[in-house]
Amino acid sequence: MISSLKFKVIIMKKDENKLTSSLFIVPYLIMFVVFLIFPLAYGAYISMHEWSLIGGKGEFVGLANYMEILFSDGTSSNIFMNGLINTLIFVVLSVPALVVLALILALLLNSLPKRIQPFFRTVYFIPYSISVSIIAVIWLWMLDTNSGLVNQFLGNFGIGPIPWLTDTNYAWFSLVLATLWWTVGFNMIILINALNEVSEELYEAGSIDGASPWQKFVHITMPSIRPIMLFVVVTTTIASFNVYGQPYLMTRGGPGTSTEVLLMGIVRQAFELRDVGVASAMAVIMTLIIICISALQFKFLRNKEGV
Asked: Which residue intervals define the domain ABC transmembrane type-1 in the entry (predicted)?
């Protein structure tokens, strides 16, 4: 009888512990539903209606807004396609640089003495803690064609002035450069933590077998940090696809609309053309594109690298 009571008490305590543990995730679930699930569902709902910024909700149109974006030759379609192409250009230019440079910095910092590593980690991570508006002001001040610090410096050698923000090719270079300086520290910190988890015994075994530094990197380091590399590639791609602040503040989408990314086009559709329904449909399509690209990256890298 006593043993039976003890068993019941133990079961009750376990149930209470499970309930207590579950309560800790309730605030996150509430925020997840309020700030992610509900906006996504409501945005999809708006995208299937005629919805004016001034007039509000109109009649239900089903997939007509999506058809207008994808298959018509109107203003909305041109805004979307131009923004999508420019966004893909930025993704292609920025993601490899952000991943490769972060890995190089992580390897360099990881090779330094332990006592000075925290200093350099802090130095490289500080820009990431600054808001995008501050970043844009800094780079505008540096890259201004007439009075920018960079052109003044190059002028001492008889070079320039270079239209960093008013020529399309230079503008893309400037946007990627500013993004690199701003965000590469975040990827670097993640990769440094991954490198610290690689067993020293593996490197010692490689040294005994006569492996060169490059062979150790290819056959020990990279296989050991593959899951983290996959995470960095996918999250960096998603972040680059959602670029908005840098082109909006630095180039205003110019020259012309040559650096107007997709989020800028969605904002223009909603607040200048005042068509919230079509703008929401653009946002839904953008979300689906990001999901598809992320899924393909995950599938390709996982199968190729055996993650």
From this structure: 84-297
